[in-house]
Amino acid sequence: MEKAIFLDKDGTLIKDVPYNVDPKRVACYPDIFNSLRLLQKRGYKLIIVSNQSGIARRYFTEEDLAIAFSELRKQLMAERIKVDGFYYCPHSDIANELQCSCRKPLPGMLLLAAKELHIDLKKSWMIGDILNDIGAGRAAGCKTILVDRNHEERKKDRISDPKFRPDFILDDFYELNQVVTLEKEYYE
Description:
This protein has a single domain, classed as 3-Layer(aba) Sandwich (Rossmann fold), CATH 3.40.50.1000. Helices cover 31% and strands 16% of the residues. It contains 6 helices and 6 strands. Helix 2 (62-78) links the parallel strand 2 (44-51) and strand 3 (85-89).
């Protein structure tokens, strides 16, 4: 069984532009590259998991999303970072819509990736910028890291709920290297 880092896309890896599928507007945060390379060196698969309700809302198509993801993959490959999987939830978050098991904070995308890519979820991490990312990671059995760049998520009441409480809260990816060195404490 492999270990993985599950990564939210918008607001975590790239600047959050609502419903963005324009490849010209896909802009990685500069602090992600060194950390992601280090994680790969340590044997982690890198898997992107992303809610994409713009598909259900008909703001863009799955083909449009594939083009945007291709641009993200290209930018990461230019930095010698390989994405091992990309999973997305195309469903809407509007009440009374189709109920799914994949929209974060539900763990469906992580569970599917674990099955398809032979991932040990207990040795894996979920990294995201909002508490729904943390909820998905917790529900899947992963350790979790909240990258709260604007310090807004840590102010929310539900952060005290065990289902949404991250193992670590960071301001950016620069701090991530220190956390990953602690991983041995969890698994030895």
